[in-house]
Amino acid sequence: MKNILDQSIGAIAAEDYRAAKVFEKYNIDFYCEGDRRLSEAARDKDLDPERLSGEISAETSGTPDSSADYNRWPLDELADYITRTHHRYSEEQAALLKPLLEGLCRDFGQEHPEVGEIKTIFDGIAGDMAMHMKREELMLFPFIRRMIKADREHQPVKTFPGGNRVEAFIHEHDAQKAAFETIAGLTDHYLPPKVASVAYRDALEGLKAFESDLHKHLHLENNILFPKATELEKRLSR
Questions:
Q1: pTM score
Q2: 119 and which of 4, 22, 96, 101 could share a cystine (Cβ 3.0–4.6 Å)?
Q3: What angle (nearest 5°) sits at the alpha carbon of residue 34, between those of residues 24 and 212?
Q4: How many CB atoms lie within 10 A of CB 10?
Q5: What is the spatial distance between Cα 150 and Cα 227, in angstroms, rounded to a whole number?
Q6: 193: how many CB neighbours lie within 10 A of its CB?
Q7: Which of 48, 10, 4 is nearest to 26 (CA)?
Q8: Contact, 75 vs 232, CB < 8 A?
């Protein structure tokens, strides 16, 4: 059996998503940098590799939740799940956070100038994500469904419009990650000031929840859906 330290962190999370809890604990990026080996990720965070692998083993012991075994889901079901769960959440949460951040800028902008910067960054990335998700829903995910149908029926499939360049989507994922890293830095990782209004605390909690959901969203695409779809397209083209 392959030593867990030699496995990629993305593959570890894909095999059992409970491992993500350990990665989140140590701020290890398993969703956009999932190709790194566990030993490398531990070294980058100055962590003892054996202790890290032990924590993962402890976290993933026992019977996993079969309903969350995303790595074994058919790709069309996974694409539907991402759309239904993560795309809709992002849209709904953005609609709540935008007016909340606008109110904070109006009420606390002079005292806390970082609020204006947070609003600018969030408005920009929320708009980019909306377009990104719409392209996935209208172009990439339907193409994946066509490939699955073609594979099932042993039929040829036309290539993805402009070529199957999931790299472009992955590049946009990196921008989403970077935006929230900046927001986290500006908010001391979503820690409210000692004297903060309910609205201020709600905004920080909402941003933190948004980023947490984004991590799983990106993981499902970067580490499972996109690699498998790319491999399927290669197989169908042979």
A1: 0.93
A2: 101
A3: 35
A4: 22
A5: 18
A6: 14
A7: 48
A8: yes
